[in-house]
Amino acid sequence: VSEAEATSSRTEDTARKLSATIDAGSRHFAAWNDTMAKRLQELRDKITQARHIADSIRLSMTSIGDSGGSCVRTYEPSHLEPSTMTSIVLTYAISSQLRDALLFYLPSSSTDDFVAIEMVNRKIRFVWDVGGGLGEVTHPLHIQTAGDLTNDQHWYRVEAQRMRNVGRLWVRPQVVSAGSALSVGPPAVNSSAASIGRLDVGPSSRVWVGGADRRLPHRLMSTQPGLVGCLHKVELNGRPIGLWNFRTQNPNSCTACIEGYK
């Protein structure tokens, strides 16, 4: 009996020590978990802050080298959602003699829908397919070669709007004389076949600048790969896209250029 009581006592003592060890381990793990959670949150906050800073950087971008385009970047705007309306604003200039450029391309990740802006033979073309077949409109203004990108007169404002199946396109120099027809002229307008007219994009969709994914519609006409010219500002549905807050890019291909017209 005495031996049994001693064994029971030792067992209880071992159990208490084991329980104390487990409690200490649990407290240690909880403290470690709290520390890691805090550090992860701090990291998330820093990433968010860095993205906000990148969004606010007012630097234009272009391809490295003068022989053609090589810069291709993708972006993941947080506000993408299916919509019957699309608004795109670009500020653009070109100092080379190249004539084609794919400036903006937004494809759906789930359908064949897309919208795009390209320069074809020095004229801006707005293209879309939102379920009713191809729609396109080309503005008649000829994009001139900029001898000096620091001169605001050599920059162009490109504004494309789509309401369901109807597209409108404005292209004008950023600096025009008062009363000039270029500042008050009507947009170029065209329409695709009538349909629901909804662009099915969402959080998984990406904006492309200077290029496109493998599903690049054959109906786009620009042939020069990579970003040609200098792009200063991109706005999608009234919200700016930070050109330096990109998701992916071709390695060693993009660089800053003149800041551009404000």
UniProtKB/TrEMBL annotation:
User: Which SUPFAM superfamilies did the record assign?
Assistant: Concanavalin A-like lectins/glucanases
User: What are the Laminin G domain coordinates in residue numbering?
Assistant: 62-257
Q: Does the keyword Ribosomal protein apply?
A: no
Query: InterPro entries annotated for this entry?
Result: ConA-like_dom_sf, Laminin_G, Neurexin-related_CASP
Q: Which Pfam families match?
A: Laminin_G_2 (PF02210)
Q: Kindly indicate whether the keyword DNA-binding belongs to this entry.
A: no
Cystines in this chain: C230-C257
Q: List the PANTHER family.
A: PIKACHURIN-LIKE PROTEIN, SP2353, ISOFORM A
| Name assigned to this protein | Laminin G domain-containing protein
> Which species does this protein come from?
Ranatra chinensis
